[in-house]
């Protein structure tokens, strides 16, 4: 008996090992497949995302071709965008000709060079082929007679879901039906407390909850539900079962999974993000694919006998022949007299010089024009290096492109020095505001918080504040509960109607006054008492991260940030640490106008923490022993730049020295003019700004407070470059709010560590922001989120168009489009400019293989300015 028992135990162990091995195999394939999508954060914590972050080992051109051939997604600017930019003078055609010559020189073609050049120059005008030519019977006859085309191009096709090739009896594609089902289940599972009733068995995980409920889904017919009866209870087993039933070869499983992930990249991206947030959801992407492909099999089973072959993509001869007649000045008669071999060579050339390549050359010329003009703007001015001792105040701003115009206006009004640094100020913290039991990360989403900082106040003040806050929360909760209750919702209109009607009318006709009244009422009622910060380390074993900093950490963070700013000597009497934030009404994308890197967190809290650290006597004493002497009369204060209204709001102003008070008073005196000028410059770019109005400040507040305003500000639109160097390099340059600015002094970076950290951190973040705007502009139907006016906020997570679309991952049209037909954002890949000797840049590229790959593969552009002011493109 014991021997039998031992054998059974051994068999169970072998079975468990086999199951674990199978699960491991499928998880490896899913992890590899997930490179084609990007994690998607909830819209309330909007973070810029590079939709191609997992594909950067391939070149931009390769990814563009792959997406075009497999998903019909075009990520080069359209012909209309290019021609519009050309008409505005944004593209120097000389660079198009240079690019064409480079391409012709790098390829060998068996046709005369002069013929090839004439054809290319004509085709580069980007005019479409005439429709009457394409429909010509003679042309079609010649194309049909052509036997075949020899091309050197090898296409890597994605294995598309089988459901994308099959239609039901009503003519509806099965993949569209499948998407509709999957969207419904995703909304049910991912709902963030928006629905009145939560998904049953949700705590068991996505797949198991679906598995329990699918037998009761009225959207499936009885036969389809029966097919899923007895389906495996474990997600990875169900996924393997479905793939086997669909007869997907092992060698093609990964690409098949990729095809399904790309079908709904928003919902899949949200599943991917959630899977990385907590251990109990680590297999969520596997569960998502198990649900999706299991349902695909259930829908497909009656059709599987029809075909399981991927459709062949044949080269269409007619457009290639038409291009030679239209652009190559060939007649049909001349074409007919050519030998078959010559015809093949001509068609092969036209096939190689396709529309994608033509627009690629135009994009590169557009980028080179921008690079050339930026270099002339920077190196043409001979600037006097201002003695930092003469600066009355020094301001540390976020590198955000919206800070640049504000900094420029501020520098015009006094002896002020401005500095650029990543707006979380090097502090890896989570913040817990007064009276809150929760905290939120206040740093770039690519990092994890290491400390929690809490606001505290007097116990009696805290109690009164919490009571007031609880009253508001309870009222809001009661309103929401009544809305979602069947009986109570019948009474709700009678109770809330008069108040909501009055609010609607007042917000519509006098939005500024109404918003000011509501805001003042809320601020008076929820007035926060004076608070202090928990900077000192608190030993709490139950906390995931420690509260506060140790003495050593306080010094380390202060030192690190001051060095990153290049501020280690010649301190002004007043140093203003400026975070940035935004304010707008009725705007699902409010978080997108905060920090593009920090998941919608404003920078004011971090600014206050850093200023407080730098004012601590013990921190200054330790820094002094290391050679960083902060004068006794220098005081650090904190403020926040409100980007929607271009105002500076003070957050933390301790007792000031006499010199610091003088600087503070000077800032207060000039700030109205700075704000006026910055608003006038910024608002003039908005298409619905009434230029005859004489009060830009009032108009800026109207944009922020009007609940019908779909474009309160442009955000980071038109961003195009990231300059890493001293402020003297760009001072007095009008960079048009298009450039991220980070201070850097190569003289203080002998090891190159500072530059490496800037590239790894802010460099990555700016690239993500840049490609988010790029993708939302060139492919808005896939990477954008459509019109704000028709969006539906769903599940408390994000937006959809209608009630059954993908979860839209990108920016709305109003963030990138001037009008329905004209873009505002110029889709240019980020130009990174480093002010340093060339050997510093070479060392950076040699040591950082990830960054080197981004440059070589065309995901970013790179240039440098050496100490003699010479510009070099890398």
TrEMBL record:
This protein's record includes keyword Cytoplasm: no
Keyword flag Magnesium: no
Positions contributing to Zn(2+) binding: 398, 400, 580, 595
Record InterPro entries: DabA
Topology of the protein relative to the lipid bilayer: Peripheral membrane protein
Major location category of this protein: membrane
Subcellular location: Cell membrane
UniProt keyword terms in alphabetical order: Cell membrane, Membrane, Metal-binding, Transport, Zinc
Taxonomic superkingdom: Bacteria
Cofactor: Zn(2+)
Pfam families: DabA
Functional summary from the UniProt entry: Part of an energy-coupled inorganic carbon pump.
Self-association state and partner proteins as the record states: Forms a complex with DabB.
Family of the protein in this entry: Belongs to the inorganic carbon transporter (TC 9.A.2) DabA family.
Protein name, entry field: Probable inorganic carbon transporter subunit DabA
Organism for this UniProt entry: Rossellomorea pakistanensis
């Amino acid at each position: 008996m014991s021997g039998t028992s031992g054998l059974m135990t051994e068999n169970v162990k072998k079975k468990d090992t086999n199951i674990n091995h199978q699960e491991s195999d499928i998880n490896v394939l899913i992890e590899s497949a997930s490179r084609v999508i990007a994690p998607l954060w909830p819209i309330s914590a909007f973070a810029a995302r590079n939709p191609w972050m997992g594909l950067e080992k391939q070149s931009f051109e390769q990814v563009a071709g792959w997406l075009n051939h497999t998903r019909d997604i075009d990520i080069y600017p359209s012909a209309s965008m290019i021609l519009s930019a050309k008409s505005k003078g944004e593209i120097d055609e000389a660079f198009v000709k240079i690019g064409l010559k480079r391409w012709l020189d790098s390829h060998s073609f068996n046709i005369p060079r002069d013929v090839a050049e004439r054809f290319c120059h004509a085709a580069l005008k980007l005019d479409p082929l005439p429709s009457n030519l394409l429909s010509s019977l003679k042309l079609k006859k010649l194309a049909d007679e052509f036997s075949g085309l020899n091309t050197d191009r090898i296409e890597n096709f994605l294995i598309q879901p089988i459901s994308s090739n099959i239609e039901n009896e009503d003519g509806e594609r099965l993949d569209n039906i499948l998407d509709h089902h999957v969207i419904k289940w995703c909304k049910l599972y991912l709902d963030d407390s928006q629905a009145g009733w939560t998904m049953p068995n949700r705590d068991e995980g996505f797949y198991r909850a679906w598995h329990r409920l699918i037998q009761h889904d009225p959207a499936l017919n009885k036969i389809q539900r029966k097919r899923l009866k007895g389906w495996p209870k474990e997600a990875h087993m169900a996924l393997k079962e479905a793939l086997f039933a669909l007869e997907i070869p092992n060698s093609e499983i990964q690409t098949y999974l990729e095809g399904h992930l790309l079908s709904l990249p928003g919902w899949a991206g949200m599943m991917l993000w959630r899977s990385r947030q907590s251990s109990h959801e680590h297999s969520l992407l596997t569960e998502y694919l198990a649900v999706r492909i299991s349902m695909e099999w259930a829908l497909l089973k009656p059709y599987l006998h029809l075909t399981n072959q991927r459709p062949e993509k044949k080269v269409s001869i007619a457009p290639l022949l038409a291009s030679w007649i239209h652009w190559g000045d060939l007649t049909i008669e001349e074409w007919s007299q050519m030998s078959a071999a010559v015809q093949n060579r001509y068609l092969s050339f036209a096939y190689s010089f396709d529309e994608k390549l033509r627009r690629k050359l135009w994009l590169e010329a557009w980028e080179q024009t921008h690079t050339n003009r930026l270099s002339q703007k920077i190196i043409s001015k001979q600037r006097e290096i201002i003695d930092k001792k003469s600066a009355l105040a020094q301001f540390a701003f976020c590198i955000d492109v919206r800070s640049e115009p504000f900094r420029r206006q501020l520098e015009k009004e006094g002896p002020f020095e401005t500095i650029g640094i990543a707006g979380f100020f090097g502090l890896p913290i989570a913040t817990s505001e007064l009276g809150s039991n929760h905290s939120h990360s206040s740093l770039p989403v690519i990092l994890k918080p290491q400390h929690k900082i809490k606001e505290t106040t007097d116990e009696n003040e805290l109690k009164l504040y919490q009571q007031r806050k609880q009253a508001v929360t309870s009222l809001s909760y009661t309103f929401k509960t009544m809305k979602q209750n069947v009986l109570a919702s019948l009474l709700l209109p009678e109770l809330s109607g008069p108040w909501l009607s009055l609010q609607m009318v007042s917000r519509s006709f006098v939005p500024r006054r109404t918003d000011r009244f509501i805001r003042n009422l809320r601020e008076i009622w929820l007035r926060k008492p004076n608070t202090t910060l928990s900077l000192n380390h608190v030993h709490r074993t139950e906390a995931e991260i420690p509260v506060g900093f140790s003495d050593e950490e306080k010094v380390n963070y202060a030192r690190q940030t001051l060095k990153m700013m290049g501020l280690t000597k010649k301190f002004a009497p007043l140093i203003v640490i400026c975070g940035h934030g935004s304010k707008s009404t009725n705007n699902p994308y409010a978080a997108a106008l905060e920090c593009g890197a920090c998941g919608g967190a404003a920078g004011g809290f971090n600014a206050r923490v850093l200023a407080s650290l730098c004012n601590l006597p013990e921190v200054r004493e330790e820094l002094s022993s290391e050679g960083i002497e902060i004068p006794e009369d220098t005081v650090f204060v904190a403020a926040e730049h409100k980007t929607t209204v271009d105002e500076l709001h003070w957050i933390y102003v301790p007792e000031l020295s006499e010199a610091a008070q003088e600087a503070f008073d000077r800032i207060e005196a000039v700030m109205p003019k700075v704000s006026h000028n910055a608003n006038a410059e910024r608002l003039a770019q908005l298409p619905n700004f009434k230029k005859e109005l004489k009060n830009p400040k009032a108009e800026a507040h109207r944009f922020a407070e009007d609940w019908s305003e779909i474009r309160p500000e442009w955000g980071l639109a038109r961003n195009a470059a990231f300059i890493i160097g001293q402020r003297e390099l760009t001072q007095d340059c009008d960079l048009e709010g298009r450039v991220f600015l980070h201070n850097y002094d190569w003289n203080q970076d002998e090891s190159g560590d500072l530059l490496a950290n800037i590239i790894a951190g802010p460099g990555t973040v700016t690239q993500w922001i840049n490609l988010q705007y790029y993708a939302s502009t060139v492919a808005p139907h896939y990477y954008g989120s459509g019109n704000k006016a028709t969006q539906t906020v769903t599940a408390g997570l994000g937006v959809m168009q209608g009630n059954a679309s993908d979860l839209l991952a990108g920016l709305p049209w109003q963030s990138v489009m001037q009008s329905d037909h004209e873009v505002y954002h110029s889709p240019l890949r980020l130009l990174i400019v480093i002010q340093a000797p060339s050997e510093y840049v070479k060392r950076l590229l040699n040591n950082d293989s990830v960054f080197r790959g981004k440059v070589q593969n065309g995901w970013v552009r790179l240039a440098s300015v050496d100490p003699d002011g010479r510009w070099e493109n890398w």
